[in-house]
Amino acid sequence: MKLQFLVIPAAVVVALVALTGDVPAQTIATNSPAIVKHRYKIAVCDWMILKRQKLGAVQLTKDIGADGVEVDMGSLGTNDTFVSVLTNAVQCQVFLDKARELGLEISSIAMSGFYAQAFAERPTVPRMVQDTIDTMKRMNVKVAFLPLGVRSDLVQHPDLRPAVVERLKAAGEAAEKAGVIIGIETALDAAGEAKLLDEIGSPAIKSYFNFANALQNGRDLQKELRTLGKNRICQIHASNEDGVWLQNDPKIDVPKVKQTLDEMGWSGWLVIERSRDAKESRNVKKNFGANAAYLKSVFQKD
Predict the structure, then answer these.
(1) pTM
(2) Per-residue pLDDT tens for 53-76?
(3) Structural domain of 111
């Protein structure tokens, strides 16, 4: 028996969403490229390709040659929550339609505002987390990125640990109810981060591993990955500090990283954040295109 699918024009979808707040589950774009299935998928960060929360990030991601884009929640500053354009289903559907049209995916939602803001101390953090979870649900995204940043760095500010743990436990409860995962990036080594995750004790709080954190602190990247293990790592920022492209970086052996992840049985999104050439740091397409092509040549060659 041949399956038949209902095709709904984009204009009708937007109208339905506006009336009901729901996105029709059977929506399919007839001319959309098929999304290719890989064990490892390659994405870029919208704020690092200078298209933070802009629809143009999707087309630029396609031009770069990545499989998906990590979409940021927007700036924080002194606001009670993120300044976001993705506050309702209609606006989210515009992004989803564009991604589907180009055969791309939204890999994750980022709370990059916490790079500079204090997760441990801002009074409206519960609202910020819930707003992120609500956006994830509207965009059918399963992973959020939460960096603890400089102001909640548990190496430099160990006194903040009780507050961080308490807030991450609460965030974990909210994420678990929604069926999503919040991946945290800390300044701890892998053993320290594993201990932190055990202390939090939530299956919805995992490690969002960053190659650069291990490399810049002189740690053994392969050992760090193995210490955290397959089940603790939800997603990976697969780049190093700026200076040279990944393929020219003497500090990282990318094929060896793949071998390690293969042996661990891990699979998922590798999201490029940096590793830009120092001479042309603002040439987005060239830098991220080179890194995406190289990661694909290693991780998607089979």
Answers:
(1) 0.89
(2) 999 999 999 999 999 999 999 999
(3) 35-299
- The number of C-alpha atoms within 13 Å of 266 and in the hemisphere containing its C-beta is 24
Single out the residue of 95, 90, 119, 122 nearest to residue 106, CA to CA. Answer: 95
Do 120 and 14 share a domain, yes or no? no
17 and 165 share a domain?
no
- Pair 25, 139 in one domain: no
Gyration radius of the chain over CA positions = 19
Rounded Cα distance, 70 and 47, in Å: 9
Name the residue among 26, 4, 2 with its Cα closest to residue 13: 26
- 236 to each of 44, 207, 209, 257, how far by Cα in Å? 11, 9, 5, 12
- pLDDT, tens digit (0-9, with 9 covering 90-100), for 133-150: 999 999 999 999 999 999
Q: For the chain, count helices (H), then strands (E).
A: 10, 8
In this structure, the answer to whether residues 221 and 246 fall within a common structural domain is yes
- pLDDT at residue 16, rounded to an integer: 43
| Torsion, CA 274, CA 122, CA 108, CA 238, rounded to 10 | 30
Q: What is the pLDDT of residue 97?
A: 98
